[in-house]
Request: fold
Amino acid sequence: MANGIYDFTEKHKKVLSYSLRDQIERAALSVSNNVAEGFERGTTNELLMFIYIARGSAGEVRSMLCFIERRKGFDHFKAQNLDLKSIAEICSRQLRGRAEHLQNSDIKGQRHLNEKSRQQYET
Reply:
């Protein structure tokens, strides 16, 4: 999603304000960054928290794309905008699925694993 957003903002930087470009780029990149940070924290609860933050960022991207779609003079962005909104929606659904999976898991996170529990999960 971030690559698509960056391609979009670079292509249309003459008509998109700097602040809008900056905000949508940061929100798009924030999705994967938050998942990575949550994973590196080493606990399921922290990962879940960061997954929900990532979902919020994906929602922020969709909101800004909806804003762009409604602005006068942005009709020629419609097809690319719809594609990006679809990608952002898919990201949100995938993140929700991962969150549900983690919420139903007995694993507390890699920080809580020891040699015995690792062997138990590997078999």
The domain at 2-122 is CATH 1.20.1440 (de novo design (two linked rop proteins)). The mean pLDDT is 89. Residues 45 and 98 are 13 Å apart (CA to CA).
